[in-house]
Write a structure and sequence with these properties.
Layout lengths: L1 H14 L10 H10 L2 H18 L3 H9 L7 H20 L1
Helix pairs in contact: 2-3
Length: 95
């Protein structure tokens, strides 16, 4: 059974590789399949669509923009952004 799921997963990954970034429904579909909570999946999809329509960018693009250090940032904002990047690097090394 596990081998069958692995083969299907690889096939979907290969054939739908170009569609993954453009599909806003992929994350909520996975949430629905794993947890069965339709409200959480619907909220996730709805919020990502609202963010995309409001800003014209995806959620990850907005987060990247927020975490980049700008000249207009205060000293506190620069320190916080620097600490977030350092923490992410440390977490990636532990995995």
């Amino acid at each position: 059974m596990i081998l069958k799921k692995l083969i299907w997963g690889l096939l979907f990954l290969i054939f739908l590789n170009g569609c993954v970034q453009n599909s806003a429904l992929l994350g909520p579909a996975y949430t629905l399949a794993t947890s069965g909570n339709i409200y959480h999946a619907g909220f996730t999809y709805g919020s990502s669509e609202v963010i995309h329509k409001t800003t014209g960018k995806s959620t990850t693009e907005n987060i990247k923009e927020i975490l980049t250090i700008n000249d207009k940032d205060t000293e506190f904002e620069k320190i916080v952004k620097k600490r977030i990047k350092e923490t992410r690097k440390k977490l990636k090394l532990k995995k």
